[in-house]
Amino acid sequence: MARLTHPPRPWRGAVLLVAGAYFAVPLLASLVFTVDVPGQGFTLGSYTQIFAADGFTAALLRSLGLALATVALALFLTVPAALAVRLSGSGRLRAALEVVCTLPLVVPPVALVAGLGTVLKWGPDHLATTPLYETFVAIQNPSFPLVLVFAYVVMALPFVYRSLDAGLRAVEVRTLVEAARDLGASWPRALFAVVLPNLRTALLNASFLALALVLGEFTVASLLGFQPFAVWIVQASGANAQLSVAVSLLSLLLTWGLLLVVTGLARTRGATGRPARTTRPLASSAHTRTTRTTRTTRRKEAVR
Amino acid sequence: MTISITSTPRTTTAVERPKGRRSRRRPGAWLAALPLLAFVALAFGLPALAMLNGALSVDGAYGLATMSQSVHGAYRTALLGSVKLSATTAAIAAVLGLLLAQAVVTSRGTALREAVLTASGVLANFGGVPLAFAFVATLGNAGVLTTELGLTDHGWSLYSFWGLALTYLYFLVPLMVLTVAPALDGLRPQWREAAQNSGASAWQYWRHVGIPVLLPTLLGGFVLLFGSAFAAYATAASMVGSSVPLVTLQIADALSGNVLVGQENVALALSLDMVIIALLVMAVHLPLQRRSARWLA
């Protein structure tokens, strides 16, 4: 577009260069830090030690389990709600859900954990004689703390819901459902065979956001006294600085890999969406798609 | 809230086309959302109420003494420190993010654009502990750059306000790029052409067209970054310990019993302070978002 009118822009190269340096240097320096150990010279020891390190596997598996449980619960709760908004067209429900799914943004994780810790203390303090006490103990089981899943679902809710909502706007859900129903599909079949496959990109984006959030989460877990991956890294850093930096680098690679997998899945199998958009997983990335589709919805409302 | 919820289906049915199948589904819509609403009430509402209750109670009765304690002395320093750090980093990141996004959006190749946006998506999520360790390895006391360049002799310390600010920029700038890139895409080439045809310079175009249209997005982005920096705890906790006063570190200290017994309520009061600040910031954000949507739609 308008290429002729653009004069050459030297500032652009400078900006990209400075930004590239700023973002690359810490990663490269970390790599150097882990392979060039003072007194030992070049060594890959920090990386080979990781898997033998005490508690590494348990912490990683715990984090992965928490992440999968969070994704499952978050989707189980938000998908029906988001679908209901689109299918019923109820403005009240939309507004209520938008408020409910924005509220967690206002409460920082530290504040959430402060309140959560207070609630958990009710268990031993007030409920010790009631059956609820068992529940309180059960959700705080250190090997799989369900209470963390609850907290993570709350924290992921704004991003998951927005990602789903944006995906739903790009698809004519109501038309799809009515077409499927008119062709004789049952309700479950219309949902699982028609609607959900069309939402693959949105579902993958939402899952990625929740996964990334849980795998890197430190605040809630450490303050409630549990030990998933991020908390383990900090505790390991006391004994071996190289090791913890090596794990940090690996966790970035893990996130990157996860993102590529999600993008790849969306690109190869989700032929419906606009694949180029899926490379931007944050909720804000949905913005362009949203604005484009709101115009069509607005037009439709005007017709009505 | 639940009371208003149950009465809504009737009011909306009248507006819809009277289609049998659809109107029968109407109560079902609220039913489908019920698990979500119930979950949020339990997992979010209960802790929020506990926070309110604890922050507003003093020795078993309700009062504002705890709240007032939470905005004085060391707590005041921590609150101001958090606000100062968040505002500074958010402002710097907003400007840098805008520059970077503009450089990427106006570039000819789509490869660069895709690469930068994908990287931004990853780096914006690269917060917390790993980020802190990457910076410790780079610019900490025994960091690679610190020892190579002898930065300690020049008075550099990562465990300071500016050290923390430099670290926060690492996830704030990508976040700003993600926020502002769609808005920059929305700036129509015709607007610039119209300005040029009318004899406007590049500066005049930005001064009178570009920036005014982008302003809501920029301010909204600033608010988003402020919120992220304000809520951040893991990076600061695993990097600086408590050498920089921050409200999140104070809350964590009070929660883990590093202070006097009976300070849990102060932690809750500080949390409420944070929520109030976040609410104020949100209140600015939402109307701005609506305004920018009008122009860039």
Walk me through what this model shows.
- The complex is a heterodimer of chains A (304) and B (297).
- Helix content of chain A is 77%, strand content 1%.
- Chain A is built from 14 helices and two strands, in the order αββααααααααααααα.
- Chain A has helices at residues 10-35, 45-52, 56-88, 91-106, 109-126, 132-138, 146-169, 173-182, 187-198, 200-216, 219-224, 229-239, 241-269, 286-303; strands at residues 36-37, 41-42.
- Chain A is globular.
- Chain A starts with 9 loop residues before the first helix and ends with a helix.
- By secondary structure, chain B is mainly alpha-helical.
- Helix content of chain B is 78%, strand content 1%.
- Chain B has 13 helices and two strands.
- Chain B has a two-stranded antiparallel ribbon with strand order 1-2.
- In chain B, α4 (73-105) crosses α8 (161-186).
- Chain B is globular, with a radius of gyration of 24 Å.
- At the A-B interface, α1, α3, α4, α5 and α7 of A face α1, α2, α4, α5 and α6 of B.
Question: What's the arrangement of secondary structure elements?
Answer:
The complex is a heterodimer of chains A (about 300) and B (about 300).
Chain A: H1 10-35, E1 36-37, E2 41-42, H2 45-52, H3 56-88, H4 91-106, H5 109-126, H6 132-138, H7 146-169, H8 173-182, H9 187-198, H10 200-216, H11 219-224, H12 229-239, H13 241-269, H14 286-303
Chain B: H1 2-13, H2 20-55, E1 57-58, E2 61-62, H3 65-69, H4 73-105, H5 110-124, H6 128-139, H7 144-149, H8 161-186, H9 189-197, H10 202-231, H11 234-239, H12 247-255, H13 264-296
Antiparallel strand pairs in B: 1-2
Structural class of chain A: mainly alpha
So what's the overall shape of chain B?
A: globular
Mean pLDDT over all positions of chain B: 79
Report the biggest beta sheet of chain A as strand number plus sense, adding barrel if it closes: 2 strands, antiparallel
Number of helices of chain B: 13
The largest sheet of chain B is:
2 strands, antiparallel
Fraction in helix of chain A: over 70%
Assembly classification: heterodimer
Query: Whole-number radius of gyration of chain B?
Result: 24 Å
**Taking strands numbered 1, 2, ... along the chain, how are they ordered across the largest sheet of chain B?**
1-2
Q: Largest interface, by Cβ-Cβ below 8 angstroms: which chains and how many residues each?
A: A-B, 103 and 112 residues
Gyration radius from CA atoms of chain A, angstroms = 23 Å
